[in-house]
Structure formats: structure tokens, C-alpha cells
Design goal:
The complex is a heterodimer. By secondary structure, chain A is of the alpha/beta class. Chain A is 40% helix and 18% strand. Chain A has a single domain, classed as 3-Layer(aba) Sandwich (Rossmann fold). Chain A contains eleven helices and nine strands. In chain A, helix 1 packs across helix 8, helix 3 runs parallel beside helix 5 and helix 4 crosses helix 5. The mean pLDDT of chain A is 97. Chain B has two domains: 209 residues, Rossmann fold (3-Layer(aba) Sandwich), CATH 3.40.50.970; 111 residues, Rossmann fold (3-Layer(aba) Sandwich). In chain B, strand 4, helix 4 and strand 5 form a beta-alpha-beta unit. In chain B, helix 1 runs parallel beside helix 6 and helix 10 packs across helix 11. The termini of chain B are far apart. Classes of the chains: A alpha/beta, B alpha/beta. The interface between A and B is large, with 36 and 40 residues. Chain A: It comes from Solidesulfovibrio aerotolerans. Chain A: It holds the Pfam family TPP_enzyme_C. Chain A: One of its GO terms (molecular function) is thiamine pyrophosphate binding.
């Protein structure tokens, strides 16, 4: 009987074990990004901007030209890249501390200018690489190494909802929040990234996808329990959906 | 064929020099006293087929510079002291990632908000790296509008030659004054610049990574040694102006606008029979230490004059160590010096023999 290959690793994804912890979902998001790059046929002209945090090593796994940005500055670096090379496909990949705390000004203004770039934002409610400190997206009551009693609304403020905030800005063509905790949500994530990439390729504007993801190590939960937390706790706080789609607005 | 002279401010000469050198990406944020540069480039850069972005901050403009530099495009950002402090993060990353770019600092008074008048208070920040880590940038100090043009023009070549940020350290005086400037023929764009390292999208080749993170054992040490070697090789770029130094007993060492003002004082004292000369470093890094040391070896004495409380004087003293020393006269930022202000200090230093 002839074997038929029905599921393969995207060629642009390195065939190496990642440094990510067991149960971390960066790998899943990397794969979806890699699939979309191949489907659009833009691998050869892609320039990625990796950010500070666990995903700084993006370039070890997605085999495209990459520049490393200082903490939070990926959208500014990506602006410089895209302005210098308009023919390139440019995406930045950022975590929640990077994007929603130290890099808040850069993401807001790149989005508002409508830079023709795509930003993948992985929100796991915690600083991962530095060892589990409170992030701007940490949930009320969530314990971290810098809010050991749990995040307190009165003391630290509440978690920031970046997809909703970004959607209010004029230059944004597409903005969505998804998760990768179920097959259905993974498929939805792929649709969202595909649409965000298309807004750049079609010169429509800025594309943004926030992806809820696990951090079992710093949540101090098993992989399975971490995945369950996405559905039980995070999605009620960070609702999934498309917050802006310029194409749909044009139709209406 | 000589180009027609144009009558422009130092700030505008910087903008024109950048355009003529093939700079096609400019990123900036408003701050006095350098606003003529972004204002001029907001229309001139798009007219030249380039990109102009008014960034949300100097943090962002410097990081946009990093991104454009990674693509091998000639790019520039400009600011003044408080803004340049904000750029130090990106400049350190550019040095660590070996990215070429031009950063202009039209020095104003500090610390803090200081004032909007001229100052040389950013000398240390400019020549000792400025941000975190063990790195240097090439530093060019113009004293006239023509030098603003010429040094900006040449800064891009130097940035690409060494794959390193180049800092133009001007000040409010040279930025705001107006003089005739002779422009050079505009350089054609070089699509091959940085062909062996820049990001273009990988195409058929292996992917390239431009980064400053080196975690493997020994990797960072190797990178720092490589950078150190590169900084040493920059000694080949030393530039300075020596005026009446041959028979001088006392040499005034001053840079930028202050060097030019001190030259007037030196000229006037010469006419009165004083054996004084001027040594004006044009590259502040690399510092012309061999040249100063040679003068010290001839038995000459030194007086360093700066528009601050004493920064370059450290480098002068290091250059002549073991042979002689340098006196110092600091003219305080917040005031505008004239040639007369340097007359008494130079006379006193001559007598101090």
C-alpha cells in the first residue's frame, strides 16, 4: 500500500527541538505563522522582527531573515524595516510584557500610522523569560513573583485588553483575539493570522492578532491544567473575536 | 565643475548633506534646537523618493533607524541632548548588532531639561559609548556649516565601512547660524551596499540574523573582542585641524563651535606676539591622541577649552600622560561665548609657563 503524507512540517520551520517549556504554546503559534508564510508564498521576501522574551529565539525556528529588536521596540524596528524595504513582508512577534508594557507607545503608534506590517501578540499573562513576574495582562487574583498575594485591582490596576485598544486606532485594517487551546481555536487562529497577513499583502493597513497562550512553568500548572485555564479563566476575561476588519466595514 | 554655493543654516546643511549622500530614510521627533532638520526633510525626503517618519518618541525614531539600517539603507535620525539620551538603547543595540546609521546630536544645555542654548555637555556620552555595554561610535564634530554638510555626507560612508553607528556631535551655535555652503555632487544610490549582511528576505540563500544576543559559552567575549578590534581600526579615520601649532608654546585644544571661536582668539593673540596655536579635534572618537602626544613630545603645553565643566580635557590628559598636562577653562553652558571670553584664560595659561 502506498503511503500518503497528509500532515507535514512546513519547510520554513526548523526541524529542531525548541527551548520552550513543555506545554508552552509558542511552538503552536510558530507553526501556524510558518504555515501562513508558506501559503502566501512570502517566505523568501519575509523579514521578521523578534522581540525580547522567550520568543527572542524565533529565528532559531522560523527560518527567515530576522532582526532582533530591543525590548518593546519591535513595531518601531518593523516600521524602519518596512519603510526601507517596501517589497518585503514584515512581521513582528511579541509577548505581553514586551508589547503591552514597555512597548505600549511603539505598538499604538505603529498601528495608528497604519504601518504595512503584521504583529503577532502572544498573551500568556506573565513575564516568562525573566521568571514569572506580573505582566500588564496578569489577571486579577493571579499570583506572580512580583504580586505574590495575587494581582490586586486597587493596587496594580486590571489586565489590559490590547486587541480592544488596538482596534480603536485608525490605521488598523484587521485586529482579532484568538486562542490555541482547542482544535477549533487553532483553526480560528490560523484564519486570523491569514487575514492579518493579507492586510499587509493587499496594502490595506496594519494587522494585529492577539493569541491567548499558556505558560505552565510560571503558572505552576501542568500542561493540561494550563490549557484548561485558557478556556475557564482567560477567555472570559479576554473574549475571542474580530474587533476590526476593514474589509467587512467596506461591505457594510 | 563646482557646485553653486548655497546660504543655509548648519541644521539645513546636515539635512542637505544627508540627502546628497544618498540617505533615503529619516526618522525624527521634534526638539529644539534642531527642528530645521525634520522640517526640511519632511518635504525634501519624499521628494527625493525617500521615507520621512515623525516618530512617537526618540526611543522609537532610533529603533526605526535600527530597522532601516538592518536593510542596508542609508538612514538617519537627529535630535538634541535629552532626545539623544532616549536613543542610547537603540544605539547600543546597533553597535552590538553591527548596524550602520547616522545619529545627529545638536547639543543643548543640561543636565535634565537644561536650556535650548548651546553646550558641549554631551561629550562623555558621545565618545564613551553612551548606552550600556562596551562599545564606541565614530563621533564627528563640525565647527562650521560647511563641516555640518561635509561630515554628514561622509558619515554614511564611515557607518557602512565599519558597520557601526556614526554620531555627528554639533551644537546649537553651528546648527542655528547661517553660512555659505558648497554642496557636493549627489552620490548615486548603491544597491550593493551591505550586500553580504543586510536583510532583503532570504530568497534562495540561508536566512540572515542580525542580533546582539550571544548566549553560548565564549560567544559574547568573542563578539566584544571583535568589536574592540574594529574600534581600534577606526584610528585610521582621525581628523583634526592644527592652526599655528608648529612654533606654538601653548596649544589651545577645543572642538566644534568652541574650537572655531577659540581660533579667533588665538589669531588675535598671535598678532600681539603670543606664541599660541589651536588644535581642533574633528573626530572625537577616534580621538587624535597620537597627534597631541607628538606635540607634547615637542615640549608644548596645553589649555583645553570647552563649553562644559571639563570632559574632553580628560582625553587630552590621557593623550599627553607622562609628558605634560593640560590646563582647563570651562565656559558655562547657558551663556554664549565670544573670542574675548577666551582671551584672559589663554593669556594666563601662556604666563603660567
Amino acid at each position: 500500500m502506498q503511503e500518503q503524507l497528509v500532515f507535514k512540517r512546513p519547510d520554513v520551520l526548523a526541524d529542531v527541538p525548541t527551548h520552550y517549556c513543555p506545554g508552552c504554546q509558542h511552538g503552536v503559534v510558530h507553526r501556524i505563522v510558518a504555515e501562513c508564510l508558506e501559503e502566501f508564498g512570502v517566505v523568501e521576501k519575509t523579514i521578521a522582527v523578534s522581540a525580547i522574551g522567550c520568543s527572542v529565539f524565533l529565528y532559531n525556528y522560523i527560518l527567515v531573515d530576522t532582526v532582533e529588536a530591543p525590548h518593546g521596540r519591535a513595531p518601531a524596528v518593523a516600521t524602519g524595516v518596512k519603510r526601507a524595504r517596501k517589497d518585503a513582508f514584515v512581521f513582528a512577534y511579541q509577548g505581553d510584557g514586551d508589547l503591552a508594557s514597555i512597548g505600549l507607545a511603539e505598538i499604538m503608534h505603529a498601528a495608528n500610522r497604519g504601518e504595512r506590517i503584521s504583529v503577532i501578540f502572544v498573551n500568556n499573562t506573565v513575564y516568562g523569560m525573566t521568571g514569572g513576574q506580573m505582566a500588564p495582562t496578569t489577571m486579577i487574583g493571579q499570583k506572580t513573583t512580583t504580586c505574590p498575594g495575587g494581582r490586586c485591582l486597587e493596587r496594580e490596576g486590571g489586565p489590559m485588553h490590547m486587541a480592544e485598544i488596538i482596534a480603536t486606532l485608525g490605521g488598523v485594517a484587521y485586529c482579532a483575539r484568538t486562542a490555541v487551546n482547542t482544535m477549533k481555536n487553532m483553526a480560528q487562529t490560523k484564519r486570523a493570522i491569514r487575514r492579518a497577513f493579507a492586510t499587509q499583502i493587499n496594502d490595506e493597513g496594519f494587522g494585529f492578532v492577539e493569541i491567548l497562550a499558556t505558560c505552565p512553568t510560571n503558572w505552576k500548572l501542568s500542561s493540561v491544567a494550563s490549557n484548561e485555564r485558557i478556556g475557564k479563566e482567560m477567555i472570559p476575561e479576554f473574549p475571542l473575536g474580530v474587533f476590526k476588519d476593514a474589509a467587512k466595514e467596506d461591505e457594510s | 565643475m563646482s557646485a553653486k554655493r548655497i546660504f543655509i543654516k548648519g541644521n539645513e546643511a546636515i539635512a542637505q548633506g544627508a540627502l546628497d549622500a544618498g540617505c533615503r530614510c529619516y526618522f525624527g521627533y521634534p526638539i529644539t534646537p534642531q527642528n530645521d532638520i525634520p522640517e526640511m526633510l519632511s518635504s525634501a525626503m519624499p521628494a527625493a523618493g525617500g521615507e520621512f517618519v515623525q516618530a512617537e518618541s526618540e526611543v522609537a525614531s532610533a529603533n526605526m533607524l535600527l530597522g532601516a539600517a538592518a536593510c542596508g539603507v542609508r538612514a538617519m535620525t537627529t535630535s538634541s541632548s535629552p532626545g539623544v539620551s532616549l536613543m542610547q538603547e537603540a544605539i547600543s543595540y546597533m553597535a552590538g548588532s553591527e548596524l550602520p546609521g547616522v545619529i545627529v546630536n545638536m547639543n543643548r544645555g543640561g543636565p535634565g531639561l537644561g536650556d535650548i542654548g548651546s553646550s558641549q555637555g554631551d561629550y562623555y556620552q558621545s565618545v564613551k559609548g553612551g548606552g550600556h555595554g562596551d562599545y564606541r561610535t565614530l563621533v564627528l564634530a563640525p565647527a562650521s556649516c560647511q563641516e555640518c554638510y561635509d561630515l554628514t555626507f561622509e558619515a554614511f560612508d564611515l557607518a557602512f565601512k565599519y558597520r557601526n553607528p556614526v554620531l555627528l556631535l554639533g551644537d546649537a551655535i553651528v546648527g542655528q547660524m547661517k553660512e555659505p555652503v558648497t554642496p557636493r555632487p549627489a552620490l548615486p544610490l548603491d544597491p550593493e551596499a551591505g550586500a553580504d549582511w543586510k536583510l532583503t528576505g532570504r530568497g534562495e540563500r540561508a536566512p540572515r540574523i542580525l542580533k546582539s544576543l550571544f548566549l553560548d559559552d565564549g560567544a559574547l567575549a568573542g563578539q566584544n573582542l571583535h568589536l574592540q578590534q574594529k574600534y581600534r581600526s577606526m584610528q585610521a579615520e582621525v581628523r583634526y585641524e592644527a592652526f599655528e601649532t608648529a612654533d606654538a608654546e601653548l596649544i589651545v585644544v577645543a572642538f566644534g563651535s568652541i574650537g572655531r571661536i577659540a581660533k579667533s582668539t588665538v589669531r588675535s593673540l598671535r598678532a600681539q606676539g603670543f606664541k599660541v596655536g589651536l588644535f581642533r579635534p574633528i573626530t572625537l572618537f577616534p580621538f587624535p591622541e597620537a597627534e597631541l602626544r607628538a606635540l607634547a613630545g615637542q615640549g608644548k603645553r596645553f589649555l583645553t577649552i570647552e563649553h562644559n565643566l571639563g570632559q574632553m580635557v580628560d582625553d587630552v590628559r590621557l593623550a599627553v600622560r607622562g609628558l605634560t598636562d593640560s590646563d582647563f577653562f570651562g565656559f558655562l553652558p547657558g551663556n554664549m561665548p565670544t573670542p574675548e571670553d577666551f582671551d584672559a584664560p589663554i593669556r594666563a595659561a601662556v604666563k603660567g609657563a
